[in-house]
């Protein structure tokens, strides 16, 4: 790369904007962000899953929203429900830069019981109960997303394929190992990628033809033609036996009555692109730690596809002392602004903003969320430590599994979750 090309790339997202096409302008995006995320255990005790921090400075939902902006889709509604305060506060701070006067918006849509006295009964019901809001925007196409996965995807390409194939429903899909497919919606397709079968979380997933160890899994990304979506939601709402869920009800029914097409998510080599379900503690920890690789699959430094978020006004990270046995250092790690590594060693870890690690402590293969304080001479291994936790001097975590299980949550893979409550530090009001 020549010096002029390198300089152009360096300043790329200051001068280039993603095009808003006629197709993307006629599309409304609805992000389902009301889920509890129970498999993340106490990480979602006080926040919705899409609001869980990720990658040193982001929230999980920032990836889906950034994909929208970078794809030229700027009419976005975010549907909230479960413990949404943290999520709503983040959306207001991070995503208030849109210009509604020219038809751009990130609109927060709380659960409002608009059509019935109950809260949302499923993913499809969440959309159904907001049909009047959807009508108001007069879209030709509706893109439905989950707000709880980590990936970078150009939705405009998927939308173009939806229109070109004259589909009424297009489902984003990716190949996953067969033994992992039980947690997903799994589909079968013909030679033209028309969906012939769809099963939500099957006990015996069907493999991809020619790939006996892989299954074609739904990414929870759907594009609907507006008329078809309306009719499908109304029929589903009238079905008392339905669970009102896209994966369990809407998609299987659509396959029988409409042109339903799978859209494979592939990289430039034709291989499955980066996509992570961070729904369990282990997968969440693993996806964060993977960012510490020399060349991670998810490149947060790609200037062609920036991930947008709210950033607190923090000073640069500081590494203090350079004495033998008291050297502030971080190796193969991500360290956010406002952090002070004071005579401590950090290795292959993700340290979120405004965290302090004191002299003599060693943090290895751990995810440390914002505003954590780790005292002197601590040993922290294979941990996820939640926001605001204070670890006293001399504390060890991730060393003795039996001792850890008495105090904390330990996964089958040996990852330890530590929260303020587990340390008898009350950051939230709880009734005794």
Q: What strand order characterises the main sheet?
A: 5-4-1-6-11-8-12
Distance between the termini: 63 Å
- What composes the largest sheet? 7 strands, mixed
CATH class of the largest domain: Alpha Beta
Overall structural domain count: 2
The CATH superfamily of the largest domain is known as: Spore Coat Polysaccharide Biosynthesis Protein SpsA, Chain A
Architecture per CATH nomenclature, i.e. the level-2 architecture of the largest domain: Alpha-Beta Complex
CATH topology of the largest domain: Spore Coat Polysaccharide Biosynthesis Protein SpsA, Chain A
The helix content, as a percent range, equals: 10-25%
- The overall strand count is 31
Strand content: 25-35%
- Mean pLDDT metric: 92
